Amino acid sequence: MIKSILLVDDNPSVLISLQRALSQIIEVKSFYSCSTISEATNILNNNSIDLVLLDVELEGDESGFDLFKYFPNPNFEFIFVTGFEKYAIQALRLSAADYILKPVNSNELALAILKVEKKSNKIKSSDVVDSLKTNYDLENPKITVLIKKGYTRILVKDIIRCAGKSNYTNIFMTDGTSILSTKTLKHYENLLKDFGFFRINKNDLINTKFIKTLLKGRYPILEIEDGTQLIVSDRKRTLIRKMIFK
User: Crossing angle of helices 106-118/12-25, nearest 10°?
Assistant: First the structure.
């Protein structure tokens, strides 16, 4: 029986909406929330926590997976709540009770809570794999993009490039549209680095499969298939050439 829940996310609005949604699903004695692994560790060491819902990508270099360096054999159940599907297999290896993508659907959350309540001491990996295959398309991963009015989900393969400006990022899509996100370019660089994206200068992150050509000159210019031309920084010049002419 779930009596206490800890929520770990670096976005205060997510913490609020998660607690609100959980309160409509299950009655618990205590809710705890925090934004860092050190805070989560302290709460877990000093309180009896039955269930942890945590994001994967936290501020700075922290990851939700880091929590299990301190709790290699956790005595609590845990559910990952994140914006990206690529962590599903790693979550599976840790025997997570479930893996939910943002924006969180209340039905999916309710099913995850039910799974925790019914879960036996030993989880069957095959059952989790079947669940992941049913709910998430790992061949065509999506990311959750934070925008001013909430969230939207987009296919990684449909992103041509990302352009950063201050604390915002403009994401350019293959259909000619663009999405203004309230996350930094660094956030998307970390999110997309394993999917063929490369930061060519301070402000531009590109999907390398859309590179058309590299124009020679005093300052090398990379031409993208949508016709955009971007300057490549001196530090990235050699790497870009290797990508194009490999």
Answer: 60
